[in-house]
Description:
The complex is a heterodimer. Chain A is an all-alpha fold. Chain A contains 14 helices and no strands. The longest helix of chain A is centred in the C-terminal third of the chain and has 27 residues, at 210-236. Chain B has a domain at 1-80 and 183-233: 3-Layer(aba) Sandwich (Rossmann fold). Chain B is built from ten helices and ten strands. In chain B, a hairpin with a 2-residue loop joins strand 9 (201-206) and strand 10. At the A-B interface, helix 8 and helix 9 of A face helix 2 and helix 3 of B.
Amino acid sequence: MSETGYAASPRIRWTEWLPWLAGVAVFFLLPEYLLFGARILTYILFALSLDLIVGYAGIVTLGHSAFFGAGAYVAGILAAKVKLTDPIVLLVAATVAAGVLGVTTGAVILRTRGLTQLMLTLAIAALCLEVANKATPITGGADGLSGVTIAPIFGLFRFDLFGKTAYLLCLVTLLAGWWLVRRLIYSPFGATLTGIRENSDRMHAIGAPVYRRLLAVYTISAMIAGVAGALSTETNQFVGLNVLGFEPSGELLVMLILGGVGRLYGAFVGPVVFLIAQDALAKQFPQFWYLGIGLMLVLVVLFARGGLLGLADALAARVRRSV
Amino acid sequence: MADALRLTGVRAGYGATVVLEDITLSLAERGSLAVLGRNGVGKTTLLATIMGHTSFHAGSIEYRGAEIRHVPVYERSRLGVGYVPQGRDIFPSLSLEENLLVAARPGRWTLERVYELLPRLAQRRRQMGNQLSGGEQQMLAIGRALMGNPSLVLLDEPLEGLAPLIVDALLKTLDRLIREDALTVMLVEQSAKLALEVTAQVVVLNRGRIMHHGPSAELLADPQRLTSLVVAS
């Protein structure tokens, strides 16, 4: 786990600007990959929301896709069925919907711990998947929700085929999400979350309302995941059942483990490595691409417990010692 | 003087297992009480029960005249009950200062005042919780309890496993908290002599029951009785 907190300097270090420089550089240097880039940015935001609860608050979940899916479907249904197509309004609606789902499911889930909690998160994701599958008139069921059209942002920036607008929208939204998560981590609230993760009984004994704090962070995390879901809908102008269930939740957890849990920027590194590897491996070995991902995960779990960022930290420390 | 804490007929333990039987005691405001006894007689369980960490079977716990038996743990802390647990339970991923600040509540105990009481903490403020020595962790555990601005502090074996120099420093700190800062203190300690020297009252537990309750000075002045009580317990 990273050693960050609100008594540590909240000043943004120069290295923290690197992801944003890379994001802007991709926009200008790799215009043919902007749709793929928008997908990566969406998953970074999604992973950031997961890191907030897994890495900082210690809530292990296999059902985080429920909130991503809720955001994606709410944005899609409002656009396709209600003809509410303003992308900013859709983002807000998705945030609210995912937040409501987060607070109601969190109220139940967070009363449990360990395996029970894990199973409940999985069950809620499965329930959401089944609801989306059966509510065909609204969600499109197994065929997915088509007919989603998104209006230009502020009436000016149209969503184009090459993904320029979508990419920039995702980048700006991710910046806002990162800023929010970073502020939370470097606040008394963030330190309380670390305390709860490490010893919830002790946090009780020093007067922290543990359940309420966990519910608050779970809801915030759900809202961020909902925004990521809505971004996915706005980018793809389509919603399929693949946004819900165990698989996207599990994949997201794998991405976070790859990058490094509880490190903030692990949520950036993990999705980038995972999705690029997935893309490259799927092109080279269409039948066996998951083998490569699995191998990568095994290596990280065996030799880099803190994920790729943990490995980088360890290597940097070794270099410093040897100099 | 009004009672800060009053336990009446307390029966408590872990699940169905009863550890404490018929505990009745009171502790006056600004008073100090040593809890003595051999290992396994229920000293830690007594503090944990006051804090709300055990299964409560019968009796009542009054804090400043209000029944707190059903009050959640964090509310007890907010009411003014501070707890320094055995083993310290420092948060390893938080810095020393963060460990203090997560427990902060408005009142006369501030970061500066804790650093003034325990200057060693000020020197190590940026160190992570897992980079502190045992003595520093113990000081931090006491400082963290004070940051909650309690009026009653429960200390569970705060001197356990510490070097003599650190023990001396902590005893001076405890003495100051009791005499100058007017805190009500309940101290569980293996070293009977040290505990009796800093407290006004003492209870000796035996198999979860109180077998002696009286002034500390009286027991300190009678080493034979002290030995027989603690060894017999």
